[in-house]
Amino acid sequence: MTRSRRSLLKSLGVMATLPWMLPHLARAASPTRIGVIGAGSLGGTVGRLWVKAGHEVMFSSRHPEELESMARELGPRASVGQPAQAAEFGTVLLLAVPFEALPQVGRDLRSAYSGKVVLDATNPPLSGGSSPLILEARANGVAQTVAKYMPGARLVRAFSCVDANVVESSGARAGGRIGMPIASDDAQAMQVAAGLVRDAGCDPVVVGNLAAAVAFQQGGPGWRAHLTAPDLRRRLGLPAAN
User: Fold this and answer.
1) What confidence score (pLDDT) does residue 112 get?
2) Which residues form the signal peptide (predicted)?
3) Whole-angstrom distance, CA of residue 195 vs CA of residue 202
4) How far is 105 from 82, CA to CA, in rounded Å?
């Protein structure tokens, strides 16, 4: 696809009409340096899968010493650090922090993540939350709220609607790999995300631009669907892939 065509698609916001792109979104051609911001259940699981796929991953938390044993087990492609170190390390970042930490993360790491592809896996709590940030996300959409607090990031909504254990087992599922919905306003960032989704053992399903990510946020038809890619496309009303 030429640069001019990518630019046109981005400006028109017609990602949702492009499921035909998916078979052509290849795995990353070479190892990618990935910073995992928040190495809890989801971040740790996806990061481990990426290490096993050949990528270099720095796992981070406020207490990186707690991650050292995992990194040793994974070998030399895995390392640990503070969130700021991981944000500097990665050419691509996975954001998997508690949702309430989002404004501070956006402020503290802005110089490190600006211009980088950021895969956003954050979610407001399922129940019991009524903070201004959570109310904003419910009113305006989770993806749009994250974009507001992560200015300058090439944001892709990914790994946000699945359980970590389902991602971990996807590659070996008897019924087929799970379809992973992704959404972005950036066509090139979407391609990067699709390759990394494949490397984590899932099949990317392009849903649309960031506004379309409402289809797989909490309460949407794609939320924790855990379906194969063809079944997920049908559920979301997307055309079948060629």
Assistant:
1) 98
2) 1-28
3) 10
4) 12
Amino acid in the structure at residue 1: M
Alpha-carbon gap, residue 204 to 26, rounded angstroms: 11
What is the arithmetic mean of pLDDT over 218-242? 94
Q: Please give the Cα distance from 210 to 183 (Å, whole number).
A: 5
Distances (CA, A) of 119 to 94, 127, 172: 5, 24, 24
- Alpha carbons 24 and 173: distance in angstroms, whole number: 23
**CA dist 26 to 5, 44, 61, 191, 199, Å?**
18, 24, 30, 8, 10
Closest CA to 120 of 86, 100, 93, 88: 93
Q: How many domains does the chain have?
A: 1
CATH number for position 231: 3.40.50.720
Residues in the chain: 242
Q: How much is the pLDDT for 241? A: 82
Q: In the numeric block, which tokens belong to residue 116? A: 């980088």
User: How close are the terminal C-alpha atoms of the chain, in Å?
Assistant: 17
Place of tokens 């994250």: 146
Q: Tell me if 8 is assigned to some domain.
A: no
Reported pTM: 0.87
Q: Which amino acid is at 11?
A: S
Q: 13 lies in a domain? A: no
Pairing state of beta strands 33-37 and 56-60?
A: parallel
Q: How many CB atoms lie within 10 A of CB 72?
A: 11
Q: Which stretch of DSSP H or E encloses residue 140?
A: helix 132-140
Which tokens hold the place of 234?
Answer: 């049908």
